[in-house]
Write a structure and sequence with these properties.
alpha/beta, TIM Barrel, eight-stranded parallel sheet, 8 strands
Length: 218
């Protein structure tokens, strides 16, 4: 069933959009089934769970950390994940950079921006994000590669509001690139989950985070 769901999902994606299979809370056997069907990128939201699953999966598995990341949980992820998608503050970014430099690795990250109506969502406000690039804070990074932005739409049945949220995130990336034309590799927009990824793709998403449509409900 997982293999069929995965194939159906991948077949529906444009060539330029990559799938992050959100495997959080699912057993490693489910991930192994998806891996056997060709999936290589998996998204986890808890550090301990990711660290437990990683040794049980093939070495070429790519892990994206997609959950809220507390500063005291960063260290185990450095050198283990291929991307941290949920960098939601300058303090967290600076810590990732310092720990990466100490380990001698470069960590790829996305900056999480908050445009949704819910207060519970994490992320830079659009103003904080633009301010960071306006003062070229990224020039201080030694061992972190800023690959783009990640964001979530408001949790609502109003698909027009969802579209507005994704369009705002996409526009922020354009503004950043216009402000810092020398910024290299700032190419990714991680937007869209099982219920709204079609709209996210129309608004420019390059990474979609899909779990339920592949692995079923948890």
């Amino acid at each position: 069933m997982i293999a069929e769901n995965l194939q159906r999902t991948v077949d529906g994606l444009p060539a330029e959009v990559r799938l992050v299979a959100v495997s959080k809370f699912h057993p490693v056997e489910a991930l192994q089934e998806a891996y056997a069907a060709g999936q290589r990128v998996f998204g986890e939201s808890r550090v301990q769970e990711l660290c437990e699953k990683a040794p049980l999966m093939p070495a070429d598995t790519q892990w994206h950390f997609i959950g809220h990341l507390q500063t005291n949980k960063v260290k185990p992820l450095i050198g283990l994940v291929s991307m941290i998608e949920s960098v939601d503050s300058e303090r967290l970014l600076e810590l990732i950079d310092r720990l990466s430099a100490e380990r001698g690795v470069v960590t790829r990250v996305l900056l999480q921006v908050h445009v949704a109506e819910e207060e519970s969502k994490f992320g830079f406000t659009p103003e904080e994000l633009l301010g960071y690039f306006e003062r070229r804070g990224f020039e201080n990074l030694r061992a972190t590669h800023l690959c783009g932005l990640m964001g979530m739409a408001t949790n609502t049945d109003d698909m027009e509001r969802v579209r507005q949220d994704f369009a705002r995130i996409s526009e922020l990336r354009r503004q950043i690139l216009a402000m810092c034309p020398d910024l290299r590799g700032f190419d990714e927009l991680s937007m869209g989950m099982s219920d709204d990824y079609g709209i996210a793709i129309e608004e420019g998403s390059t990474l979609v985070r899909i779990g339920t449509a592949i692995f079923g409900s948890r």
